Structures are given as structure tokens and as C-alpha cells.
Inverse folding.
């Protein structure tokens, strides 16, 4: 016979070994999915003394006269926004099976119930792998919200705050270790492992904060803001931050990309995260509905409440399930609708013809420039081949030619032979060349520069790379870090430049100068680089890069995806010129119109529009990300205040 629910929140599960045990008192409610322990024990008028706080004790399980197979009856979470986790809800549904369940299955369920980390830990690892799989060169962008959903379920409702951090850390390692192996290809595993671990700490922070904000009403929104907050923190600290691996940079082929023109890469990441937390909400709601349906059918499901507001399992209303489903659908569909507002590939103020040269290098690795003259000669040679094609009518006349970063590691301002060679190439192709050069300063430091070189007139305006790469172009705390790697002293002595990132090139064929915004290689990963140059009047964007030091890794494809996001973010065509590839021509809608294979000398020539109007993302700048981060901080503070009030 089905037992009647106890109005005083006392529950009794059927037992084959003894009478039901009354509820000892109020249950602990610190956080979603915090299971209350029932059975013999002291009366718990004070949750801190009777059961311990949610951050002090292991996951608690409701036991009801355990049989010889160790079966445990576990209640589902309350329907309120406080309750629910992958452990409490799933266990309530699974353990609704009759007592005739085979002994092996019963033991497995008992073990999973008593040790929820056995399910949370692999779930966290799977979440990280799903995030990694969503990044280029794969086009599985839709796995990113699924990964966020699985991670949210894994960390929600963990009884200890350190559990949320730990599961998040596992997910972070599963994400960044396969994403960043290119950082250690030629310098050994220590930099790769160290960088991946530091990045994973921020995903651990996400797990910790999610553990708190998921107790609030409307928790899917707050959890998504927490993801944005941790992405901002990782992009800022330490040593200027490392934004590689932002969710936005895996969405170049996805439905979420058009969000970039409204709020930049941060809004894309937030939209992906919000879809993921919506999926988690939908999963929790459906599991609760399943568990409550099992109880209504008369199957023995105990109800260990997550909140003193609930006794037996409270069914999740269909309204809540529909709301979760609508959230999951509306966010990506909004991106699809926004795509109609993207500019066409030919929309602009006036068209120009641009060439990108990929000269390749004699060898890959840290010694790519051991034959520096050969690197320069390769780019001069490929430019002169383009000039012959132009003269023969096989290629159009470019208004400007863009060489990659490090295309002249011989300082052309100090070396007359290098200067003469570049001048001759510019004269032959009848266009100014943006030359990526390493310049030696008077104090023996170096500058990674892009110089506009005009035939016999020589060097003109230049962009000195402002955001330089720690542990590559310079080594912070050199005397300390040299103890960890024999390659430490191979790091350069580059210094950052100043300016707004814009250079002007005057076409030989006449017309107004072309304002080109430059983000050299590593700079493209930072939101502020192109934002500043477009605000300063850039009509076209260029990403000269040197990927020879990263071999045949996925790095170049990940960086190419960033350039596509930047094109949509600022409504500008982007020219990507790389020493070893992949070089590409990208229009303002984020579509690659031309690209080269890797490790082959090549030249791309395309007609691209110059644009003067700006997107919402350019005009708003960092404001959308700041607002989301403030909301996340406010939600965290509210959750902690609420938690303290419950414990009091």
C-alpha cells in the first residue's frame, strides 16, 4: 500500500529489517542537492552541530533500513530553484525500482549513491573533453553548450565547496590539456602542463562559484554569468592573462557567431554558457518529473528533502520544463536571426584589392629563423612571382600586399641589403608592403613590428606589437623561471609598443590611403586589440602571424577562428598572413573566402570592401562583459549572504 505523505516533513521508507525511522528534525539546506541524513542520531535544531555545514561534510544520503545489498533510498530535490543535482535527482529515479532488482545492480546503485564522486568525476572529465572537441579544426561547435550542461550538473549540489572546485578543475584539465599541447612542442612538456593547469584553475573557480550561485532562483542565468566572470579573470591574470580557449573562439562555424557584432566575443561565450545551463535546468526538471511519476505509480521512492519546504518528492510542473526548453531554443535561434543582419561580403564604402604572401620557412621549430636571410628571401621570391602573374594578366593588381610576422627577422632599418630587397619587391609588385620585421633597439631590446614599406620611399608608418607573449617574446622573472626549463633563456627580450594599432598605406594606383588595423599574431586573442584600432578609424584588419614555432599542431586553426570572430565583431574584412599557413581572406560576415594550405609558399589575392561604419560591439567596447561580470559578482554575494542566513 502506498504510504501517505507526512505533513510534518517526516518520511519513512519501507524496510524489510525494521520499522521506519522518524525524521530527527530540520534538514540542512546549504546549496542545491545537499542530501540530509536521516536515521538515528541527535536532534538537529542547529544544522551546524547536528549535521555539519554543507562545506564540511560528505554528501549525505537518506537511508531507510538498508538491506543486505546495501540499497539506499534517496529523495529527490525540492522543486524550488534551490534544489536539484545530478546525484539527488538521478538517484531518486533510479532507486524507484522494485526490491526484486538483481543483487549486482543493487550493489552498483548503492555504491554510486554512497560515493557520488564516482559519477561526478567522469562527468566533469567528459564535460572538459566536449568543450575541447567543439574547437577547430573540428566544426562540432554545438558540443560546447552540451559540455557546459554536463559540467554544471557535475558541480551543482556538491556538498562541499571544495568538491565544486575539484570537479571544475578536472573538467579544466580535460579541456586545456588537449587544447594546448602546441605550447610545448619544441620546449618540452613542462610549459604545456603548467599553462594547462593554471587555465584549469579558473574552471575550478567556476565550479566553486556555481556551487553557491546555483542555490538562487533563476540559477541558469547566474551560472552563465559566473562562466563569463572566470573567462574574464583568465584573460586578465596573471602576466596579462591568457584568453585562449574562450568559448567564443570555438563558434566560428556556429549559430552563436552573430552575437559577436552585438557584444563581442564575451557575449558569444555568455550565449553558449546560457544555453548550456538551460540544458542542465531542462535535464534536472525532466529527472524530477520522472522521479515524481515513479512515486505516484506506487513504487518505493524515499524522499530525503533538500529543503525544509518539501517533504515527499514534489513534481516539477510542465510549465518549468517548457520554460527550460524555450531557453535552450531561444538563445541559439536568436543567433540565427541575427545572422541576417551581418553585412554581405561586398558591402562597404569602396573595394580594394589585397594580396597576402605566405613565403614559408626553411625549417619548423625554435630555429625557424636560423637562416634569417632564407626567410626573407622566401617572401621576396613569392612576391616577385605574384608580380610576374600580374604582368601576365593572371592576377589582379593589388593596392596593398601583406607579409607575415617575422617575414624579415633581419632588421631592415639597420641592414641595407634587407632594405634594398624589400624595396625592390615593392617596386616589382607596384604596391606598398606591410612587412613583419624584428627591430633592434638602442638598448639591445627588440620590437616586433609591422612596417609599411613603399618602394623607393622605404619605411613609413609602423605598428609595434603592444601585447607581447610572456614566456615566448619575453620571460617574466627570468632568474626564477630559468630553473624550470633549459629553454627559458631562449625567450626573447621584446618590449611592447604603443599607438592605436592603425597604419596607413597609400596605393600606387592612387586613391585615398587605406587605414589598416593590425593585430600581430598573439594580439588577436585579446578583445582590446582590434577594438582600439577600429575606433581609431581602421577600415580593414590584418593579422600577420608566424606559426613556425608551433609545428603541425591545431594552433593555426584555432587562431584562424579567432580572426573570423573578430571580423564579425567589428564588421571588417580580415586578412590573415602566416609564414607557414593557414593564410586566409575573411569577409565581414566571418566567412573564409580564400585560404592556403600549410607549409607551402602561396599568394592570395582578393577584392575586399573597406568599411567605415561600426558595430554595436565596437561602440560598446568592454561594457557588455563588465555588466555580466558585475552580475556574477552580485549573484555570488547574494548566494553567500543567503547561505549564511540559512545556517544561522
Amino acid at each position: 500500500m502506498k504510504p501517505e505523505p507526512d505533513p510534518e516533513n517526516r518520511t519513512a521508507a519501507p524496510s524489510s529489517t525494521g520499522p521506519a525511522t522518524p525524521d530527527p528534525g530540520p534538514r540542512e539546506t546549504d546549496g542545491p542537492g545537499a542530501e540530509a541524513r536521516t536515521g538515528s542520531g541527535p536532534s538537529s535544531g542547529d544544522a551546524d552541530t547536528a549535521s555539519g555545514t554543507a562545506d564540511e561534510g560528505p554528501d549525505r544520503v537518506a537511508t531507510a533500513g538498508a538491506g543486505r545489498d546495501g540499497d539506499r533510498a534517496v529523495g529527490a530535490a525540492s522543486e524550488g530553484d534551490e534544489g536539484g543535482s545530478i546525484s539527488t535527482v538521478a538517484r531518486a529515479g533510479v532507486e524507484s525500482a522494485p526490491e526484486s532488482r538483481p543483487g549486482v545492480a543493487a550493489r552498483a546503485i548503492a555504491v554510486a549513491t554512497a560515493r557520488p564522486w564516482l559519477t561526478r568525476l567522469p562527468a566533469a572529465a567528459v564535460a572538459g573533453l566536449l568543450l575541447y572537441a567543439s574547437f577547430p579544426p573540428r566544426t562540432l561547435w554545438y558540443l560546447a553548450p552540451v559540455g557546459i550542461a554536463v559540467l554544471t550538473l557535475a558541480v551543482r549540489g556538491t556538498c562541499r565547496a571544495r568538491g565544486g572546485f575539484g570537479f571544475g578543475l578536472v573538467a579544466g584539465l580535460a579541456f586545456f590539456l588537449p587544447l594546448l599541447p602546441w605550447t610545448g612542442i619544441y620546449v618540452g612538456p613542462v610549459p604545456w602542463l603548467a599553462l594547462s593547469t593554471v587555465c584549469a584553475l579558473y574552471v575550478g573557480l567556476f565550479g566553486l562559484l556555481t556551487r553557491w550561485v546555483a542555490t538562487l532562483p533563476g540559477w541558469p542565468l547566474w551560472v552563465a554569468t559566473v562562466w563569463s566572470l572566470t573567462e574574464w579573470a583568465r584573460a586578465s591574470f596573471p602576466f596579462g592573462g591568457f584568453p585562449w580557449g574562450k568559448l567564443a573562439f570555438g563558434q566560428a562555424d556556429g549559430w552563436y557567431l552573430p552575437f559577436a557584432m552585438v557584444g563581442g566575443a564575451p557575449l558569444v561565450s555568455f550565449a553558449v554558457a546560457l544555453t548550456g545551463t538551460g540544458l542542465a535546468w531542462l535535464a534536472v526538471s525532466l529527472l524530477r518529473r520522472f522521479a515524481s511519476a515513479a512515486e505516484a505509480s506506487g513504487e518505493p521512492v524515499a524522499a530525503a528533502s533538500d529543503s525544509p519546504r518539501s517533504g515527499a518528492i514534489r513534481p516539477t510542473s510542465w510549465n518549468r520544463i517548457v520554460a527550460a526548453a524555450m531557453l535552450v531554443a531561444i538563445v541559439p535561434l536568436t543567433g540565427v536571426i541575427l545572422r541576417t543582419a551581418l553585412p554581405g561580403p561586398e558591402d562597404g564604402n569602396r573595394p580594394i584589392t589585397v594580396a597576402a604572401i605566405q613565403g614559408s620557412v626553411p625549417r619548423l621549430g625554435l630555429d625557424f629563423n636560423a637562416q634569417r636571410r632564407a626567410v626573407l628571401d622566401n617572401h621576396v621570391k613569392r612576391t616577385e612571382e605574384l608580380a610576374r602573374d600580374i604582368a601576365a594578366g593572371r592576377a589582379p593588381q593589388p593596392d596593398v600586399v601583406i607579409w607575415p610576422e617575422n617575414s624579415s627577422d633581419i632588421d631592415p632599418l639597420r641592414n641595407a641589403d634587407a632594405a634594398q630587397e624589400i624595396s625592390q619587391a615593392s617596386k616589382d609588385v607596384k604596391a606598398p608592403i606591410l612587412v613583419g620585421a624584428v627591430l633592434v633597439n638602442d638598448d639591445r631590446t627588440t620590437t616586433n613590428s609591422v612596417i609599411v614599406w613603399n618602394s623607393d620611399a622605404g619605411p613609413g608608418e609602423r605598428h609595434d606589437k603592444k601585447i607581447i607573449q610572456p614566456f615566448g617574446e619575453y620571460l617574466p622573472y627570468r632568474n626564477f623561471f630559468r630553473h624550470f626549463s633549459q629553454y627559458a633563456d631562449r625567450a626573447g627580450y621584446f618590449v611592447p609598443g604603443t599607438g592605436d594599432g592603425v597604419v596607413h598605406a597609400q596605393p600606387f594606383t592612387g586613391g585615398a590611403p587605406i587605414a589598416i588595423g593590425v593585430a600581430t599574431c598573439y594580439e588577436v586573442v585579446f578583445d582590446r586589440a582590434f577594438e582600439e584600432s577600429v575606433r581609431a578609424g581602421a577600415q580593414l584588419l590584418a593579422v600577420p602571424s608566424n606559426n613556425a614555432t608551433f609545428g603541425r599542431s591545431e594552433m593555426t586553426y584555432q587562431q584562424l577562428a579567432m580572426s573570423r570572430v573578430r571580423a564579425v565583431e567589428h564588421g571588417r574584412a580580415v586578412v590573415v598572413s602566416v609564414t607557414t599557413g593557414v593564410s586566409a581572406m575573411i569577409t565581414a560576415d566571418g566567412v573564409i573566402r580564400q585560404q592556403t594550405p600549410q607549409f607551402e609558399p602561396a599568394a592570395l589575392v582578393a577584392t575586399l570592401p573597406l568599411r567605415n561604419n561600426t558595430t554595436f560591439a565596437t561602440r560598446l567596447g568592454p561594457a557588455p562583459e563588465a555588466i555580466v561580470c558585475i552580475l556574477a559578482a552580485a549573484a555570488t554575494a547574494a548566494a553567500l549572504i543567503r547561505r549564511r542566513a540559512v545556517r544561522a
Notes: The CA atoms of residues 26 and 308 lie 6 Å apart.
